[in-house]
């Protein structure tokens, strides 16, 4: 039942595992889930082999800078609402402290709601909204759900049992949300610059056509699964990094002041903040990257060998099915690459400092063909 896992700590080997010899390590090697039994489990993150390749190729054009640019006004509207809500809270209660993680989680819930589903959730004003409650179900599974997840990882044969890893309420919520939304939009010819509209257009484009072997049929269940992982991957990871970033800025007022000066100077020079203007702010970019270094969403990257493989420059040969772990968190805190790693220092990501470090020592989004598809966000 228990099999050894290889922990790879040499960044030189990462380029082979993640990129150069990626065809040997296509899969993540995580628990077996049955998408037919539990539709939201059929998403990109857990997909395997050829199906993953076809699905990734299908979805990759969705996550381009051009597509994200069109979503920027939706994100900005949520940001303005966050500022309004915090100002109102401070003004009414006259308190000088806030539970920032809660506000960040509600903010990212609203962002995902509008950019993915075209829904104004407004959980900033209404923390008890249904969408918010479902998000808490996702992030705080019951003991039974966690036990099922652990068993699916430890006992591959469990996939033949009629077990659903996800809470049925989560599956039902996202299934109803997507199917109702798709039907309403098509019936009323509604188009929005959001993720669901892109999925719907892919679905419509396939109707009446014979799909090639390299294509993926965009059924309602497939769209539901991708919508779920878009929500799950964007909601918790973004809110956590944003929370930690604000925490470090509070602990380092000099860095906070420098960042504020850059933002205010940019606004004065450029006027209204836009997608392009945000990308011009180099210090903001450094601050964000340093937050991701110190607080990566995934502490490790998991892969499994799908072919027999000899690790370059070693005497080690991996059998098919050997699980591999790349310790992202440990690499990000290795003083060899990041001196005084506990210190929040955005200048680590100046061009010259980036150039001085070995490649593959900064992996908050993974790397190679199976990196995070939403990295550009």
Question: Could you explain the architecture of this structure?
Answer:
The chain has 377 residues and is mainly alpha-helical. The chain folds into two domains: 1-25 and 252-376, Cytochrome P450 (Cytochrome p450), CATH 1.10.630.10; 34-89 and 96-247, Cytochrome p450, CATH 1.10.630.10. Helices cover 54% and strands 4% of the residues. The strands form two sheets. Strands 1-5-2 form a three-stranded mixed sheet, with no helix packed on it. Strands 3-4 form a two-stranded antiparallel ribbon. A hairpin with a 6-residue loop joins strand 3 and strand 4 (317-318). Helix 7 (168-187) packs across helix 9 (220-251). The radius of gyration is 22 Å and the shape is globular.
Blueprint of the fold:
Blueprint: E1 5-7, H1 11-20, H2 49-59, H3 65-93, H4 100-117, H5 130-139, H6 143-154, H7 168-187, H8 195-206, H9 220-251, H10 253-270, H11 275-280, H12 282-294, E2 301-304, E3 309-310, E4 317-318, E5 323-326, H13 328-332, H14 351-356
Parallel strand pairs: 1-5
Antiparallel strand pairs: 2-5, 3-4
Helix pairs in contact: 3-4, 4-9, 7-9, 9-12
Membrane topology: Peripheral membrane protein
Subcellular location: Endoplasmic reticulum membrane; Microsome membrane
GO molecular function, one term: monooxygenase activity
């Amino acid at each position: 039942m228990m099999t050894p896992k290889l922990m790879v700590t040499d960044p030189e080997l990462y380029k082979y595992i993640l990129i150069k010899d990626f065809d040997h390590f296509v899969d993540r090697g995580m628990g077996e889930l049955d998408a037919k039994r539990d539709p939201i489990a059929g998403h990109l993150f857990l997909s395997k082999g050829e199906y993953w390749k076809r699905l990734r190729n299908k979805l990759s054009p969705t996550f381009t800078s051009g597509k994200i640019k069109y979503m920027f006004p939706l994100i900005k509207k949520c940001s303005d609402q966050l500022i309004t809500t915090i100002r109102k809270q401070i003004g009414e209660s006259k308190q000088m402290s806030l539970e920032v993680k809660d506000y960040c989680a509600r903010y990212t819930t609203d962002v995902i709601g509008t950019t993915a589903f075209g829904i104004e959730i407004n959980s900033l004003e209404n923390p008890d909204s249904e969408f918010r409650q479902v998000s808490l179900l996702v992030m705080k599974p019951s003991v039974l759900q966690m036990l099922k997840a652990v068993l699916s990882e430890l006992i591959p044969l469990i996939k033949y049992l009629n077990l659903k890893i996800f809470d049925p309420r989560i599956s039902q919520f996202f299934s109803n949300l997507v199917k109702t939304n798709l039907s309403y939009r098509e019936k009323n010819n509604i188009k929005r610059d959001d993720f669901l509209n892109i999925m719907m257009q892919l679905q419509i484009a396939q109707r009446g056509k014979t799909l090639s072997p390299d294509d993926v049929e965009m059924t309602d269940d497939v769209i539901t699964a991708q919508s779920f992982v878009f929500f799950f991957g964007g909601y918790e990871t973004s809110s956590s990094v944003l929370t930690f970033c604000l925490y470090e800025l509070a602990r380092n007022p000099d860095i906070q002041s420098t960042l504020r000066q850059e933002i205010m100077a940019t606004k004065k020079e450029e006027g209204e903040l836009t997608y392009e203007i945000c990308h011009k702010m180099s210090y903001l970019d450094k601050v964000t990257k340093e937050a991701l270094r110190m607080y990566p969403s995934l502490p490790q990257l998991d892969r499994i060998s799908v072919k027999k493989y000899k690790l370059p420059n070693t005497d080690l040969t991996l059998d098919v099915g050997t699980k591999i772990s790349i310790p992202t968190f440990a690499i990000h805190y290795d003083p060899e690459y990041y001196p005084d790693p506990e210190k929040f220092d955005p200048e680590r990501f100046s061009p010259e400092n980036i150039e001085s470090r070995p490649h593959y020592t900064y992996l908050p989004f993974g790397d190679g063909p199976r990196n995070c598809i939403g990295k550009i966000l």
